[in-house]
Predict the 3D structure of the following.
Amino acid sequence: MTDTTPATRLREATREAHRRVESVPAMRRLLSSSLDRDGLRATLARIHGFLDPLETRLALYPDVAAIGFRPRAALLRTDLAALGWAATDIADLPRGGPPDWVDRPAAALGAAYVLEGSRAGAPTIHLRLTATLGASDPAAGGLSYFGDLAGLGEGGLADLRRALDAWFARRPPADLACAVDSAVRTFDRLYQWMLDKNVWVASEP
Ligand code: HEM
């Protein structure tokens, strides 16, 4: 394990949690050939409820921006508007509670890894959505969140991994442990949020 880099440790520690999130019906629906625009809207609204408060918290930590993190909740709102919701509907969407596990820079880096790393899976999902919904015409709208692939830069996931490795190289080992814990929690909280039956999202099947 001594030659395991921080980015690899984050990946390995969250592998199972990533699989769990992928298995949530609202996520699987994105890859289903029976997905329609209402289903897409409901899933995007759910993701938004988790992402928006977490991005607001991450904005408090300058190191998060320094590793190349780019927020995407605004893209979700653009998509939801393109899919037919009024600004007031979007403003009233349910949101998760404050991300209280993000309480220091290392924890913020762990959560940012999860959100920024999720861009790596976005091309697979975007390709599928484009095929299913026939929305290769950008005017059809609703696909900018998954279509926004520029955020990782030309090096993609490799750039993010390099930035994380450089950041943790300057920090004590306890910071990496904190980030790993935060990354696992971020996935787990997202999992719970996506399944929470007490949260009502209009047009959710
Ligand atoms: C239907 C749902 C999902 C699918 C199909 C999916 C698919 C993928 C794929 C194919 C990769 C690997 C890309 C590569 O190595 O080039 C990946 C990576 C990743 N995904 Fe997902 N993903 C999904 C949902 C999510 C969600 C909801 C999150 C978190 C918000 C997430 C976080 C990540 C992270 C952090 C990585 C980078 C792993 C690493 O360090 O190598 N994914 N995903």
About this structure: The CA atoms of residues 101 and 182 lie 7 Å apart. The domain at 6-195 is CATH 1.20.910.10 (Heme Oxygenase; Chain A).
